[in-house]
Amino acid sequence: MTLTKKYWMTSEICEKWVQKLDKELDGLAHQKEINQKLKNVTVFYLPPNTTSKLLPMDQGVIENFKICYRKRIVRKVITALENNQFMPKINLRQMISEISKAWNYEVTDRTIRNNFAKSLFFVSNENSASTEDEDDIPLEEL
Prior knowledge:
mainly alpha
């Protein structure tokens, strides 16, 4: 068993861990050989440096959420300035509230579905290229 600086896990460690996970999932309803020994888990190896292109949340959901949150904060600042008030001081509780509102009210199901479809997890029924809603527009363009 040899470890290099580039790899944190050997194939033996990976195989044991996945087999243990498979056994745990059985009670709950790094290679091709691993998959042959498993009943409830399928292991897929992603090519290096491809997670930002393959994982749904990296396809734009996180970016969309950040844009929605920032828009909420910018709106608070603009409202204060329009009312000739000082810049609002936002404490941690208010930030958490704005984060919650941005995720719950502004990141749409459609955005999440489209990003899962981009990652080829499933085929979206919507044609996202033909209809662009506000969730897909960068803050600079709004």
